[in-house]
């Protein structure tokens, strides 16, 4: 399950007892950890914002209101709107089937759900190229019916679906496993049908886990680069998502513009982290 | 009752619907596309396949990818355990914010991370200008990018183990005469080892396939700084679908084994947890 | 409503959880399913509720066969072992749930639901807790919410799975009495599962003793306690002393040897009489090993001189004073009432 970090309830509680190490050791350890985090996390983040404004606010504003930038933002939003709900629906269905029933082949199914985490995004893009390129499996069919998937929006959506599809399922499976089925059984004996049981009992119980999975899924869908890069074709104003647009600007040495768009995505990443922490805190309270 | 034998009876509804949808979705989105890799590879002759995947440029990319991913995962184990320890055991100002920040590599688009790191480590960059050796466009730069994207794995695997760790065990060890270092090596390390190993494997698997954050800092010189995913991309851009697919098949098989290894580790971790 | 269980069997994989269960329960009865873990009692309860499906056999509520009716439509009240309260709902919403999820045309009005829930909450003495969440309640309170929730749908049958299992000893006893009174007031046909013999003896009208997926004995608490029909039931209901002995001319003799030497006699600790002087031929000599006083009764551990077997006896405090026995002294013991089971190989 490479790429998956389970929802952690109640984080950062300091140990009940005071640390047993001498003060100097504690100080050195904290300093080393913070120095590493500063170097690897904070400095890159600062670099993005400072470089973005290096040539003044005018260039920044122009960069993010450029028509190509705007169309990249729109395409990214479109991809998110299409992929995240579908993968959330899949996640709930898969978690229901896997945690509420016993059937043969269950562990194989779980492993298959993990697969996209372990596979290089480039390969994720490649497989769709193999299906839909002119020489691919459906190449002739698509050509005859004049349908474009590769180097067009459908290809980008498919590749993004592939790389983001385990997030919600992976979050819900352990959660629903630990909750068991007793509450659902109670609901059924009280006369509620399946849908009502799901709606009134299961869904409220998994809502924080579901939201957490959706947040992670969303972050990845917005930022996916490798897989989308293979299938997009880099057609400016048409098939460029925000990360691809950044790449093009960067390769054209328009650093300020590249970092301006990157700063937008960094803000989104920070919002993601804040939301994620709020959900963890909420889940810790109610779970 | 004409119930299918492979499924245990349950009074909960929705089995057919949920499993049917799941299976269809997984088949169309994952299994069919992945099968294409093997179908296309199978259409190559064995000699062609072997020639493609053992070409010196390809072998050099394996070595670079494995070496850099391994180095990055090692750095992540050391600092990941340190960060988890500091976050769980000590209190200091700003701890909550820093704890939240650890997940940044998961939330930040890889391309954004890539250009930021390149800017920092370029010869004239904020950090690069102080270093006497080249970082960007060398394997060191690649390792730095891979360390960045793998950073949260070890921290997030080890942190809950340390949180649930029974501190009485440490006290018992101290009462029995062990010093702090002995306690750490003999009591704490065995407890967190499975989680740290799982974190290592996750970071390694992620680093092996990583593309976005590496392409900017790598320089992408064949034989020197060309990672395997990039090589696949290059072959695709030259319309060498067969070559790209063959290399992808090799990587896929490695990914499968890594996944099996990780699942095994996780099973081990869970078993360790079960008795506590 | 009466319940009839006819030839119900159930296997989980290769494990035979229930084999050929036949059981009739009268309207208004309070029945205990008693047995050790793995005896199949919970499986049987879940099959009656429709939460599991039996492999074969039939279940009737009144004259209606409900074997293939789904749990949702069986209209039973089920109290789960760990209560299964809806964590995200208040006590009020938990109790109201069964009424709220009814199809529109059968659903009572909001006002009626509120009234009904208030009534039930006052019955379980939780009026003041309506707006609390389950996590804010004690174990005993949760148990009562679970019961109120089950009663809200006016079930004709009430099923309780280890209803007091997760509670501490004092609360357990209180709730036991309270359940008994509740049953006396409402007369809902009720079945509860327990592994605690004291609980079954204390609360139930009838006890069904189960072991390894089979029914060992059905009877009133007095019957199963005083007249167990198998060594298992004897052993499971209360402490028991086992004497190895033999049968001679229809008379049981203590000690091995002779024909039918394999027969066993079961004697309850309070049916062991202790004398200082040898009162009769069948009395045996034993040494007092240990004496401990628990409230008004005195437990005495003895070791038989001839066989080196240990015995447990129970005396009243008065009798203990009268005898004035001390550890290490030799006394004579005699079973007042014993039950002999002959292993099947030796049956006469």
From TrEMBL, chain A:
SUPFAM superfamilies: MetI-like
Alphabetical UniProt keywords: Cell inner membrane, Cell membrane, Membrane, Sulfate transport, Transmembrane, Transmembrane helix, Transport
GO MF: ABC-type sulfate transporter activity
Pfam families: BPD_transp_1
InterPro entries per UniProt: CysW_permease, MetI-like, MetI-like_sf, Sulph_transpt2
Record GO cellular component, one term: plasma membrane
Membrane topology: Multi-pass membrane protein
Transmembrane segments: 23-53, 73-96, 108-137, 149-169, 210-235, 255-275
Highest taxon above the source species: Bacteria
Positions of the ABC transmembrane type-1 domain: 73-276
Cellular compartment(s): Cell inner membrane
Subunit structure: The complex is composed of two ATP-binding proteins (CysA), two transmembrane proteins (CysT and CysW) and a solute-binding protein (CysP).
NCBIfam families on file: 3a0106s02, permease_CysW
Function: Part of the ABC transporter complex CysAWTP (TC 3.A.1.6.1) involved in sulfate/thiosulfate import. Probably responsible for the translocation of the substrate across the membrane.
UniProt xrefs under PANTHER family: SULFATE TRANSPORT SYSTEM PERMEASE PROTEIN (PTHR30406), SULFATE TRANSPORT SYSTEM PERMEASE PROTEIN CYSW (PTHR30406:SF1)
Identification of the protein by name: Sulfate transport system permease protein CysW
TrEMBL record, chain B:
Transport is among the record's keywords: yes
Lineage, opening ranks: Bacteria, Bacillati, Bacillota, Bacilli, Bacillales
Oligomeric and partner information: The complex is composed of two ATP-binding proteins (CysA), two transmembrane proteins (CysT and CysW) and a solute-binding protein (CysP).
Transmembrane segments: 12-39, 59-88, 100-121, 133-155, 192-221, 241-262
Residue ranges constituting the ABC transmembrane type-1 domain according to the UniProt record: 62-262
Coiled coil: none
Protein name in UniProt: Sulfate transport system permease protein CysT
Its biological purpose: Part of the ABC transporter complex CysAWTP (TC 3.A.1.6.1) involved in sulfate/thiosulfate import. Probably responsible for the translocation of the substrate across the membrane. Part of the ABC transporter complex (TC 3.A.1.6.1) involved in sulfate/thiosulfate import.
Any single Gene Ontology cellular-component annotation: plasma membrane
Protein location: Membrane
Record family assignment: Belongs to the binding-protein-dependent transport system permease family. CysTW subfamily.
Record-linked InterPro entries: CysT_permease, MetI-like, MetI-like_sf, Sulph_transpt2
Main location: membrane
PROSITE patterns: ABC_TM1
Stored NCBIfam families: 3a0106s02, permease_CysT
Membrane topology per record: Multi-pass membrane protein
Sorted UniProt keywords: Membrane, Sulfate transport, Transmembrane, Transmembrane helix, Transport
From TrEMBL, chain C:
Region forming the signal peptide: none
Keyword Nucleotide-binding (UniProt): yes
GO molecular function: ABC-type sulfate transporter activity; ATP binding; ATP hydrolysis activity
SUPFAM superfamilies, sorted: MOP-like (SSF50331), P-loop containing nucleoside triphosphate hydrolases (SSF52540)
Protein name per its UniProtKB record: Sulfate ABC transporter
Protein keywords: ATP-binding, Cell membrane, Membrane, Nucleotide-binding, Sulfate transport, Translocase, Transport
InterPro entries: AAA+_ATPase (IPR003593), ABC_SmlMolc_Importer (IPR050093), ABC_transporter-like_ATP-bd (IPR003439), ABC_transporter-like_CS (IPR017871), Mo/tungstate-bd_C_term_dom (IPR008995), P-loop_NTPase (IPR027417), Sulph_transpt1 (IPR005666), TOBE-like (IPR024765)
One Pfam family this sequence matches: TOBE_3
GO CC annotation terms, alphabetical: ATP-binding cassette (ABC) transporter complex
